[in-house]
Amino acid sequence: MPQDIESANERTALLLHVANDRRLSAIQQHEEASSIVKSHVTVEEQAMSGSTVGERLAYNDYSTIDWLHDLVKDSYRMRFIHSRKGLRYSLYTVFDDCSGWIAVAIIGTLTACVAFLVDIAEATVSDWKLGYCTRNPFLNREACCGDKTPLLGIASEIGDECRYFRVWSTNYGSSFAIYVAWALLFGVISSSATMLTKRSLPAVSDAHGDKQNGSYDAPPQPVASGKSMYMAAGSGIPEIKTILSGFVIPNFLDFKVLAVKAFGAVFAVATGMCLGKEGPFVNISTCVGYLVGIQFPKYRDNGRKLRELLSAACASGLSVAFGAPIGGVLFSYEEISTYFPRKVLWRAFLCSLFAAMVLKALNPTGTGKLVLFETHYGTSYNPVHYLVFVLLGVAGGVFGGVFCKANFLWSKWFRSYSIIKDHPVFEVFLVVAATALLQYPNPLTREPGDIVIKNLLVDCNGAASSRSWVCQNEARTDGRWDYVGWLTYGTVVKLALTIITFGCKVPSGVIIPALDAGALFGRLVGQAVGLPSRRVTHDHQLLEYTVPHMVAILVAKWVADALGKEGVYDLAQTVLGHPFLDLDHSLHLVQQQNALVEHLIPPPQTMAEITVDVPASNKVARGELAHKLALLRRRGLMDAGLVLVQNGGMLQGYIAEGELAFGLESVGAIFAADAAVRLLGDGEDGDLDLSMFVDRTPATVCAKAPMEYAAEMFGKLGLRHLCVLDEGTGRLVGVVIKKRLVAYLDGLKH
Predict the structure, then answer these.
(1) Which residue among 160, 223, 272, 609 has the highest number of C-beta atoms inside a 10 angstrom radius?
(2) Domains along the chain?
(3) Cα–Cα distance between 511 and 534 in angstroms, integer?
(4) b vs e for 683-712, b when ≥16 Cβ sit within 10 Å of the residue's Cβ?
(5) pTM for this predicted structure
(6) DSSP string across 643-708
(7) Could you read off the pLDDT of 512-552 as tens digits, one per residue?
């Protein structure tokens, strides 16, 4: 990446500082070769040319970042910044120390602005299915009737009738048909916009490098063509989890994805499909985090630091989705992030706080309140009612477990048909049609998901709310079995439609429809036991129901875990085929196998292809390295490499595929075709020296170590590769890359 004048000056001083290092590559003294290196290698990386860690190029597509390398790289950067004297550099040091806080504040603010635009647009577009505001067609029904205007406040409350909002028709059949037509149009618009973000990912061999037909002993096959994915489809959370775990998905956090995600979410939610905005908001906040982060060299040039910033950014997405800043932090920590140190916790809190404050000031709902929905209980509970909350927890766990498995099976089966796989807009059309036809007849499910919850959480003790459809039915004394039937029908339909909707090629989340089903079921149970019939609540005045809520949540988790350990986003990653290493799930799998690390050792043919026996001269024929590079590319893993040995198999270092290709094809272009390549030792004038790219301190493990060692080292240290040594002799017997472990764990799941 090109550097500015200031960076060039810093680099000059830094290279003078290490000029006497005996391992400084001689290639730096070659003007043309040095120019090539400077154009591809960051300043911080060039500073590490004399270290045992070695330099790295920018991470390529779908490769894994090297967490340990980036840690050392950031240490070099920090030491250099703090070593400079003078007022100017002291101020720069202070700015660098505060840049993380500044970045998250900007991210939270911008995320809230995007969420404000999406919220007001979605509310208006959604109401177009029913009618329009005669005063201003771009006002939603609530703003039109009650003067609840964004950026302002409440001028009046909505009355029984609204003379300014005109419905399309007073005839039920005509209204039904218009509702379905608008929903289909919105669905096609959202899905068509999503199609604009189709990208072909880099190819990865079906054999994961060495595995074919269930065996790791088969030779690697030619690389298959890369798969395609729609960057703006779905919630984006499975992809974000993959990125935060250390993998690189190209273009996923670009501005185009952000724009399409926001635009598509407006029309997707407006269809009335069983989906929500919370997933897209998390994706949008992460895109904002990336776009802000790359403006800071501290984050732009360091994959580890960038992921710290993205973890904090995720929290603001859920904060604006539900008006719950603390919930956003917990969601990022519990569900999305794999690396979440204490400093990220505090920055996530600040990011989430800024997002919530700015959104409250913008006031998209016109109510002046931050929360998406709220309720007042109006009654207490007795100890015997704990059994009711246990029942709710069991039901919630069963619903969640069944949903995860059913959605996984549906995605694998229904979306395998060519007409659906090749025409995703057609699938959206079918789902929207089914949703509109099934939900419109039920007064409880006709509105978008967040409005459904708001209507169900109504407190019927208030004078204003007593006029609502829910309260009027619950006040009846004739048995109200038709109302109970609508609650039951709504619960079943919501669950069924959510199963077939999640995974469609539109921006969508799964939390809101899950809350819809829970709220419907909770209201249904409330009819029988006389408790305040809410299943999900946001109450900032009473804490009395905190304990029973905790009981229900814990029971739900236990039941869901009994049905399956993997959550909906984990299963979605499996369907999408993204590589992901979750430490908890990994340990759960390997603890059942009693396997050793040697099980991961590649077959002899693969080891012969990736091993370079470096002679005493520390130079290797260029043709040999070019041949081995071609073999690496045939394996299609993109983040594999060559391991260097001497003296009968003693490990000397590791050079990654990307750096090897750059050295041979870019730097090596100015050298003779038969020039030998120096991989180890001190460089000399005229050498084609790639020793700067060699990691002389790769992580190692004994071949007889339990498999838990490998899972822990990859999961906690963020390793890109792990060298396996023979017990007793210490000689190299294998090299395991992260994707190989992921492939092994995937095999244990099936």
Answers:
(1) 272
(2) 383-576 (no CATH), 584-749 (3.10.580.10)
(3) 16
(4) beeebbbbbbbbbbebeebbbebbbbbbbb
(5) 0.82
(6) EEEETTTEEEEEEEHHHHHHHHHTGGGGS-TT--EE-SS---TT-EE-GGG-BSS--EEETTSBHH
(7) 999 999 999 988 888 877 554 444 544 444 567 788 889 99
